[in-house]
Amino acid sequence: MNRPNIWSEQKEILFEDNHLLILNKPAGILVQGDATGDEPLSDKAAEYLRFKYKKPGAAFIGVAHRIDRPVSGVVAMAKTSKALSRLNEMFRDNKVHKTYWALVGKRPEPESGHLTHWLVKDPIRNVTKAYTERHGQGLKADLDYQVLGPAGNRFLIQVNPITGRPHQIRVQLATGLGTPIVGDVKYGFLAPLPDVSIALHARQLEFEHPVTKEAMCFRAPVPEMAHWEAAQAFYTR
């Protein structure tokens, strides 16, 4: 059996114990399978566990939350049904503190604040539209943001989403601040990145361990890509 390539250096594994597998997802990989039929991160994780523990059958892996395909960063998966059930509840009840980093082309004004929109997703086009007032079946979306500073010829924003709506950060930054994320042509950036990712990274997850109740904090380094190089100066800030 060949070890899956994604795990060859184990750089993607941020933490593992009996109940959790915390990964730094590369941009371009689905978290969970969809109609494309492309192999998702969940399948790769299950194969890794099957290989590591020499399991004769399929290994259990549970997906508690997802980040978009072109987005990189921290993804929490469960190795037991007990952990999955409790993680699902924590994400549903907003008991997980999420921190994202985003690169944008111009400095947002104001440099910090709170954004509230009502989001309506078009499932056919896979695009979300943001409204500043209540709108039909729109779901309320809230986030806090602050500019960390210039990063090369871009600006690095830290985003803390309070809700977890589809494409929330992408559409709220583009609509609410007029600052689409670098590479995100779907929401108004002028040109794609060479690897067709977008410069949005799930930087950190904080939550109570679903079984041991210990306070946990997982932080993922940004991808080793040219457009992220300047952001590494903010690691210790």
Main features:
single chain; 237 residues; alpha+beta; Pseudouridine synthase; eleven-stranded mixed sheet; 3 helices; 11 strands; 33% strand
**Which segments are poorly predicted (pLDDT under 50) over 5 or more consecutive residues?**
none
Query: Biggest β-sheet, characterized?
Result: 11 strands, mixed
The tally of beta strands, per DSSP, is 11
CATH-level-4 superfamily name = Pseudouridine synthase
What do the pLDDT scores average to? 92
CATH class: Alpha Beta
What share of residues are in beta strands?
Answer: 25-35%
Distance from first to last alpha carbon: 43 Å
Architecture (CATH level 2) name? 2-Layer Sandwich
Radius of gyration: 18 Å
Describe the 3D structure.
The protein is an alpha+beta fold. The protein has three helices and eleven strands, in the order E-E-H-E-E-H-E-E-E-E-E-H-E-E. Strands 1, 2, 3, 4, 5, 6, 7, 8, 9, 10 and 11 form an eleven-stranded mixed β-sheet that branches. The longest helix has 12 residues, at 41-52. The model has no long low-confidence stretch (mean pLDDT 92).
SSE arrangement:
Layout: E1 13-16, E2 20-25, H1 41-52, E3 62-63, E4 72-78, H2 81-92, E5 97-104, E6 112-122, E7 127-131, E8 139-151, E9 154-161, H3 168-176, E10 200-208, E11 215-219
Domain Pseudouridine synthase RsuA/RluA-like: 19-174
Keywords: Isomerase
Pfam family, one: PseudoU_synth_2
